[in-house]
Design a protein that fits this description.
Length: 163
């Protein structure tokens, strides 16, 4: 119930077209986060096959891939989520909004921390790629189709290729 209420808050914050509480069940981001929570449970209990199983099952239903090793804060809102990929060592803060086609990915490093850290109250535009072990500060806006390859300080809008 707490998760439902938090997601409802996130939808009200992030989607001006939202009309009612039952609509929440029509958002693929809602279901992706449910599958993430199930797979995360298995991941934390070192049952990696079942963690991967539920991640893959959820990906096939929602077209959103969230690795169970990722750490996700409260009220993440994935709007129009098709094509979103969140890598294993990504860390996402509270009240983040992610639009479709976003990748929080690696740059090829094979071991260790390889995915970005995203601060609180961040908006990541459609198609943006944030790659590598970098930090995105609080209250940042990432433009659509931006490619982010280095740290972004708090209270900044990053567009284009940011390297």
């Amino acid at each position: 119930m707490k998760f439902y209420k938090e997601f409802l808050e996130a939808v009200k914050r992030g989607d001006p077209s939202f009309k009612g509480k039952l609509e929440i069940f029509l958002y693929p981001g809602f279901w992706a986060l449910i599958f993430y929570r199930v797979s995360r449970y298995f991941y934390l209990n070192k049952s990696y096959f079942w963690a991967r199983f539920w991640m893959e099952f959820g990906k096939r239903l929602t077209s959103i891939e969230i690795h169970p090793g990722a750490v996700i804060g409260k009220r993440l809102f994935i709007d129009h989520g098709f094509g979103v990929v969140i890598g294993e060592t990504a860390i996402i803060g509270d009240d983040v909004t992610i639009y479709h086609g976003v990748t929080l990915g690696a740059t090829g490093k094979k071991w260790g921390k390889r995915h970005p850290n995203v601060g609180n109250r961040v908006m990541i535009g459609a198609g943006a790629k944030i790659l590598g072990n970098i930090n995105i500060g609080d209250d940042v806006k990432i433009g659509a189709n931006a490619i982010i390859l280095k740290d972004v300080q708090s209270n900044v809008t990053a567009v284009g290729i940011y390297k």
